[in-house]
Known about the structure:
This protein has about 240 residues and is mostly helical.
Amino acid sequence: MKPSYHHKDLRKQLVSAGLRQLNRDGLVNFSMRRLAQDLGVSHAAAYRHFASKEALLAAIFLETSAAFRAALSASLVQPPPLANASSASSSAVAPPDASVALTRLGRAYVRFFLDNPEALGLFSALPEEQNLMLSLIASLDGAVPATASAPLIELASHAGADCFDSLPDDSAFGLLRGLVRAIRGQPAFRHLSEREVMLGYWAKVHGLASLLVTQKNFLPPDQLDASLDRLLETAF
């Protein structure tokens, strides 16, 4: 028996199942009709939520990108002081130094893709396919909100565009860039350019995410966070 979905849940299901189909079939073969069949609903029901395939693709990328940025941002939020801490000591709590923050960010980066393995394909697609997605989304003529500009630029950076300085500080790339700039003065990195440090750390976290998604049992699950911290605390 085909699954049934309440109307309020269908949009969410279209986005999550659409991401799975995108990974399985690729952008060129992405089909709203096939997606509706997979979910056991009519294609007319799917089109009530998204006017076109391009609109659904835009939602898939923008919502996945927003969740990714939120996960990275949350990793940098300083935990609140204990309830019994004095007001003096509470006000003296300093934010983590850049090295600690970079480890937290790296762990959140890897954890996001372990929890959302389908999302990894979206950020690891070939540049040709990512550029095609950009052009499809751009064809929506204003259907994408202005706030989407940062994640679209972020996708462009994965597609090969040089966006090192153009991405805003609160983008996923911008968060990592800010911490890299803060640690570059440390002895381990002084001989490297800013872009070299960025590339080295980006390669590390994205490589760990890619390997751990495909090699699920390589590290014991109960030791994963500790292992990640040790790996991320090394220079590269």
